[in-house]
Amino acid sequence: MAQQQNNEEGTAIIRMHKSESRGSMISASFNFINSIIGSGIIAMISYNITTGDTLTKVFQRIPGVGPDHILAERHFVILLSTFMFTLPLSFYRNIERLGKVSFLSMVLTLTILIIVTIRAATLGPQIVPTENAWAFAKWKAIQAVGVMSFAFICHHNSFLIYNSLEQPTLSNWSQVTHISVGSALIISVVFAVAGYTTFTGYTQGDIFENYCRNDNLVTLGRFCFGLSIITTFPLECFVTREVVSNVICSRPLSKPEHVAITLLIVAVCTALSLAYDCLGVVLELNGVLSATPLIFIIPSACYLKLCPGQWFQGEKLIPTMLIIIGLFVMITGLIMTGVFPQDCSHGVEMFYCADANISGTLPPE
Questions:
Q1: Which of 55, 276, 314, 323 is most buried, with most CB under 10 Å away?
Q2: Alpha-carbon distance 332 to 111, whole Å?
Q3: pLDDT tens-digit profile of 338-361?
């Protein structure tokens, strides 16, 4: 029985491995291409919103740059970062070219983590926790599942990264995925704990919206965060462009087609991010509409489709349960996002910053 299960799992892996891209694999199993495209676009929209929210506050710390300055205008900052950084980086045809950029993003993320942890110790005790701050058994936690799913969504660029390995073997791929996802889990947990223990019920979808503007250490964190988001944008553009090209052309793109599709994707994402500025709602919608299907439903459905046997037998039981859980989170989260929309305080200084003793800045020596 165990040998039969191993053979079935091996057959499924081989079938998946032979697919040239995630798009082609899913096309062979289920027609869920739109979920990948939607996830990439919404992710890039959220990145642009975060860039606009974050860097405007950084620029306002420059002497002579006030709230009415053009550098404090989020629309201008989004357009500036798009034309100067995200669009040029998105034009690369080979994902390996982004290796150094991805390493820079990782270093920036660790720097931000250190800053948020420091502020949890220095600023957190000065902010009174909200009522029932530590009661976690709430229905709104279902919405959080979608947001957390978005933080770990990497399935759609798996084949691009796999093909970029110097030795693309299953053992190397297993090592890369375990290290990367494991480290992402640790970083996400530390971020979540440090952020929530600092602000409890006041926590915003963008944690840097909670910090006071006169905090110099957090200003450094905002700058690192903005750069990290800018360097992450092209990875999503790579995946979205690949899927779109597979749907439209089903062949390698010519240079004019590559440029045209890249411009179209970036233009759509930029236009939508300019029109809407509440990151929390965007993350929730992305979580329940795109991230949850891509993490829970689609991989499990592909496995069930490619592996022979009954759905409720042996190793197929867990994928079946994941599909059920994914559908529950997706439907319930979407309903709750509409019924209980997240408050958005974009650009508004939090009330506790008015107190000179709660600025988050270090006391003078």
A1: 55
A2: 36
A3: 777 666 656 678 888 876 556 555
Residue 127 DSSP symbol: S
> Residue with structure tokens 């390995």?
165
What are the pLDDT digits (tens) for 196-240? 999 998 888 778 889 998 899 999 999 999 999 898 888 888 888
Could you tell me which of 223, 308, 319, 235 has the C-alpha nearest to residue 44? 235
**Phi, psi for residue 193 in degrees, rounded to 5:** -65, -45
If you count them, how many residues does the chain have?
Answer: 365
**Angstrom distance (rounded) from CA 47 to CA 286:** 12
Q: pTM of the prediction?
A: 0.78
Count of beta carbons in the 10 Å neighbourhood of residue 182:
10
Q: Which helix (H) or strand (E) holds 19?
A: none
At a CB cut-off of 8 Å and minimum separation 6, what does 241 contact? 90, 258, 261, 262, 265
Residue owning tokens 């420059």: 62
- DSSP assignment of 54-91 equals HHHHHHTTSTT--TTSGGG-HHHHHHHHIIIIIHHHHT
Distances (CA, A) of 229 to 19, 46, 204, 234, 275: 30, 9, 17, 10, 19
Rounded Cα–Cα distance for residues 273 and 346 (Å)? 13
